[in-house]
Amino acid sequence: MNREDKKRNFDTCTPFDISDDDIIKAMKDIKGYLDITPGDFKTLYRFAYTHAIERISHMFKAGDVMTKNVVSVNKNTTIEMAAQLMANHGVSGVPVVGDGGEVIGVISEKDILFQIGTKNARSAMDVIAHCLKSKSCVALSILKQKTEDVMTSPAITVSAETPVTEIASIMAKNGINRVPVTDSKEKLTGIVSRADIVKVSCALATKTGD
Quick check: helix, strand or coil at residue 91? Predict the structure, then answer.
């Protein structure tokens, strides 16, 4: 299955087929004489399905699911411009690149909120409430700061060959919603979001219901 076929499958949640190899492996998992009764067939299917899921889940790589046209900012971009860029594209975070195009960090709405909010502010509503109570908006103090002053660094990145299952673990472990994809020189080539992971999970879940 080529990269375009795989992308088409998870974009439309098309079920995956159990391969002959999955069946053969499943048959080997069943000890003793195999009599094709309904019970045996269910057992065979269960083993075959397990092998299929394992195979398919490792089939998808970052390069298969990533967004290639990535919205990013330079380390010298002002917070004001970065915030406007994220608002225009409807994203909550973007990679920050250095002058050579290498990924040096990630800036998200949480990073900005943490900087402009009160000590305990962790949401946009916290900041809005604080602004309403103040004579001037607390955000004004950082508008001219640069992204490198606020970004989370170093950035957690993956390569195009990183399995989606590994990316999901990285996101869960680090509490992040997106991971930049870089080449061997750490230059940005794409980004994988939590939504992309959900699409793959959807495709696998669709197979479960068959």
Answer: coil
